[in-house]
Amino acid sequence: MQSKLLRGTFILTFGTILSKILGLIYVIPFFQIVGREGTVLYQYSYVPYTIFISVATAGIPLAVSKFISKYNALEEFAVGRKLFKSGLLVMLTTGVISFLIMYFAAPVFAEMSTNKDANIKDVTTVMRAVSFALIIVPFMSLIRGFFQGHQSMGPTAVSQVVEQIVRIAFLLIGAYAVLKIFKGDIVTAASVATFAAFVGAIGGLLVLFWYWYKRKPYLDELLRKDKGTVEISLKEIYKEILLYSAPFVLVGIANPLFQAVDQITFSKAMAEIGIQAKVADSYFSILNFESHKIVIIPMSLATAFSLTLVPSITQAFVAGDRKSLNHQLNQTFQVLLYLTLPASIGLSLLAEPVYTAFYQHDLIGAEVLRAYAPVAILFSLFSVTAAILQGINEQRFTILSLLVGLLIKLSLNIPLIKMMETKGAVLATTLGYAAAILINLLVIKSFAHYPFRLVLRRSLLIVIFVGFMWAGTGIVYKLLLLFLSPESKIESVILIGLSASVGAAIYFYLGLKSGLARKLFGDRVDRLLRKLQIFGRRRASEN
């Protein structure tokens, strides 16, 4: 049973990571096809869509899987099936309502997003194109949760990957066909690109239907073994589901809400200091689409990691095992900082070639990415501290911390943009997230009685290691600039590869020599070293 659970968790984690990688890589060809004008329209529509979809589905698969797993363990299989049947209708209704709200409110969202009258109609068209996905995705999320509740992670993982592949293929082929083959306009191309979310969702749903067809005999067999001793009303079922999923909804929409503040205020603030609407739109795309897509790479690790924390932290907290709880929290914070700090600092240092490799050579884009990259540390910390709050059953404070963070972002965004342009929006996001994280940390200290002394000492050590890494990477990067140019895509990739390899080697060596890497990752480090030695011997024998 334990091995099956671990195998399922690995499959789901692998599927999620692969889906995220695909969701990152597609921006490279997409930008080349539609350019900045296309990404502006795409991003204007995707931020409200992300908020709608997060509210409609975030936490539902996990909440449903937890509920079904709980009653399956009691051999009350009919309770889970009851939730599934009624839930399909509820989620379909939720999806249709979300679609109708977004579709008909699109002109209002468009007017809030841009200060250019000519743009409102275009943004409305693109927003309406993406809204169709809202009909299917909530419905699909419930089916994924049902399978996960039966310890079957394959359907969710495969459907996620298929959904992403179908979406990206339709997005790229559709946008290319509109602009290059049919000689259409950029609004139509952006609309096709956002409508791809609906097409991708159909692909993911078909995979789930296939799994349902294959697994139905087994699921019906379980139903025949039902004890039938538990009677629970639909009202009680949905109350339990909503209580569990609410914190995930908040964590899921935190980032889109901060982006939404930029979307509403950015163009207007830039217009007030005399920046032309077209230039403001270009800067908005650099901030909210191009740079953001790269910055969330380190954050993705933390998000996937944070979802695995809740059960072990909850178990230690409920059992009153203070030693185990402190150990879990120590490991969590240290691993988070050990992974995200060097990644975000390295990204900031190599901002110019990274931006060129992904999009095009743009000094303004590189400057924004350089300022924005370290904020990934805060994105990760918020995600993980929110997960810890749920683990210690104090998730209500997540609402408080998020609201405080958003209030700071909303209050400071326009004044800071007027003072510092795009970097002002980055600073407002930094201050908002920092305040939210501080509240979460104070709650953890207060309710879990957690001492931060060890983490603070280790954090200082990690910062020193990152300093050496930064110096080594910087020296190599400066030397390579004598021969290579960050204005070329191919040369940028070489610059990134060589500089990052040196930085990673320095960081890994220091972690190994200090013993920190082994304390955090245990025998995984030794296994990695053995593989590297075997690989090195093979290469030597080949030569």
From TrEMBL:
Location within or outside the cell: Cell membrane
This protein's GO CC annotations: plasma membrane
List, alphabetically, the Pfam families matched: Polysacc_synt
Give the record's membrane topology.
Answer: Multi-pass membrane protein
Keyword annotations from UniProtKB, A to Z: Cell membrane, Membrane, Transmembrane, Transmembrane helix
- CDD domains referenced in this protein's UniProt entry, alphabetically: MATE_SpoVB_like
Transmembrane ranges, per UniProt, are 12-34, 46-68, 88-106, 126-143, 164-182, 188-213, 241-258, 294-320, 332-351, 371-392, 399-419, 425-448, 460-484, 490-510
Fetch the PANTHER family from UniProt: LIPID II FLIPPASE MURJ, PST FAMILY PREDICTED COLANIC ACID TRANSPORTER
User: Under which name does UniProt file this protein?
Assistant: Polysaccharide biosynthesis protein
Q: Which organism is it from?
A: Neobacillus thermocopriae
Organismal lineage: Bacteria, Bacillati, Bacillota, Bacilli, Bacillales
